Amino acid sequence: MQVEESRYDRTETFYRPQSSIDIGKALIFIHGGAWIDETCTPTIFKQLSALMAEGSKQELAYSLFSIDYRLSPNVRHPVHVQDVVENLYRLVKDHQLTSLQLVGHSVGATLAWQVAVADETLFPSLDKLQAVRSRLQGVFLVDGIYSLAQLLDEYPNYDYFVSQAFTDYTKDFEEFEHSIDRLPKTLRHIHLIHSYRDELLSLRQSNYMSSLLQKVRIPFKSYFDDMGLHDEVPRNAKLANYLLHNVTFA
């Protein structure tokens, strides 16, 4: 994979701490857009990052970045998650990052989880994947998609974007119940977040993920609240406040 093709040049840097002690820690945002929407870019988290910086009583003890990835139909799975890993790896190397936490919204949450439970057969460079996963301490999954089978059962018309992202989702998309045993031991923090007013995704996806985590007794925190419509959530002050109070690094 060509590095320049992964859209690393579109990475946004919203905040860098002054303290050298905190310079290696980073909270990294991954946007959604159903794998196809060019209007969803890393910049959608600019307001959220500003709310976090302004709402903190002291300097944030971690950097804030936002990354991009190529979209369908120009590419198909697994290129999206390969790009995410490539760009996380580049951030690690360019900024000497030692600890990562991911905030994924919508399909960004799907991608964040796919990084956490990565299928190694999908990646040309296991060294890069290992460099990312060994530093991954937490994931914040916001209004995400966790089962395509359940998604299309509830919203059959969503096949218009699923069919562009996957050649055959029944073969290419690994339902998360089959990958959860690959969670790395370094992943200490899992947060499941959903807006009650999300008009594009009901609670079914988040409830599915909650049940899955409970079934295998994996600790997690959940935060369900009115944070606006689906596309409003990444700019919501309640989400910024939740992140401020729950992002902790070992």
UniProtKB/TrEMBL annotation:
The UniProt record lists the keyword Nucleotide-binding: no
Domain Alpha/beta hydrolase fold-3: 27-118
Any Pfam family the entry gives: Abhydrolase_3
Organism, scientific name: Torulaspora globosa
UniProt-listed InterPro entries: AB_hydrolase_3, AB_hydrolase_fold, GDXG_lipolytic_enzyme
Transmembrane segments: none
Name of the protein described by the UniProt record: Alpha/beta hydrolase fold-3 domain-containing protein
GO MF entries: hydrolase activity
Keywords, sorted A to Z: Hydrolase
Top-level taxon: Eukaryota
